[in-house]
Amino acid sequence: MKNGRRDLFATAIILLLSTAPAMVSPVSAATHPNAAPSKAADSASAANCARLTDSEVAGLFSKWNLALASLDPKQVAGLYWQDAVLLPTVSNIPRTSSAAIEDYFVHFLQKFPRGVILSRTIYHACNLALDMGLYDFSVLDPAGNISLVHARYSFAYTYRDGGWRIQHHHSSAMPEPVGTPQSATEHPTQQAHHEAPAATPTHEGSNAAKPVAPAAHNSEPPQPPTLAAARLVLYSASRTPSAMLSAEQRQKVGDATVGVKVCGHGVDGQRSFELSDPAPESEANETALAWAREARWQVSGTPDGADPVCTQIVVRFSDAGG
User: Fold this and answer.
1) Which of 148, 175, 195 is the last residue of a domain?
2) Residues 6+ apart with CB under 8 A from 39
3) Which helix (H) or strand (E) holds 61?
């Protein structure tokens, strides 16, 4: 009788399970902590991920370098995010706000700085680009003498609100003695490229999403060293442009700026000068050309055949003279 009851009970359980609605776990695959992300989530993540090419990262530095040539501290500071951190070359004070960054460039731009990249390593990630390496800065003292500062640098660019700006910038002079400006420029300009691991499509710049293969090291095989590209640099100047004007002319010219294109034919060849962005005042234009002709210009690197090596400069005047 007991066996019969057990059989009857087992039969009832089987019937109950066969007729009851299907039951599922309250933790679905979509919410399980170990579940793989869905394709929709991948697409949403890719849509919010911007990446820059190597040339675009280099373009951000060029934009910053041109802002220095404007001698406008506000324009330079505008390339940094409001919460950016600047660890500058010639100041012990970290700059952690837009006002502090602008204050630094108020003083630094008085040296007429201009940077030239010697070597760089670029790292890419989602909404982030790092540009790190060595650069030289030429600066002008009040007497018109040019000096060269050899420094290390790092720029961290982040993407927000549809644009790229500087999130972090560190610049410091080389801790050990280096060669003369001539020997420094004889080293080839080197560039390395690193890509953060990525298995989902990402944006390149602001273009449509494109698939990016995972990569954790250099995406390109190492290239053999090449000769440094030739460039024309200001070697020395005996006086400032404003010092070439009379007091009356300085008052008339004021804080005018003049763009001048300087070209050199070979290391010791002829130099040519022409206005590329003239000022309204003829005195400023004539004096800018005269100052450029009086200054000493040097071709560094290896000139390419008979083609001239050219550079664009901005000559700025001050009614204070000096």
Assistant:
1) 195
2) none
3) helix 54-70
Q: Which tens digits make up the pLDDT trace of 277-298? A: 888 889 999 999 999 999 888 7
User: Looking at residue 54, which CATH number applies to its domain?
Assistant: 3.10.450.50
Q: Which of 303, 286, 302, 304 is nearest to 294 (CA)?
A: 286
**How far is 269 from 111, CA to CA, in rounded Å?**
29
Q: For the chain, how many structural domains are there in total?
A: 2
Domain range for 304 is 231-316
Model pTM score: 0.50
| Model confidence pLDDT, tens digit, residues 244-272 | 999 899 889 888 888 888 888 766 678 88
Distance CA 299, CA 268 (A): 8
The domain boundary, picked from 169, 195, 221, lies at 195
Name the token pair of 177. Answer: 């003695």
Q: Which amino acid is at 62?
A: S
Dihedral angle sign, alpha carbons of residues 239, 244, 248, 254: negative
Determine the 3-state secondary structure of 105 from DSSP: helix
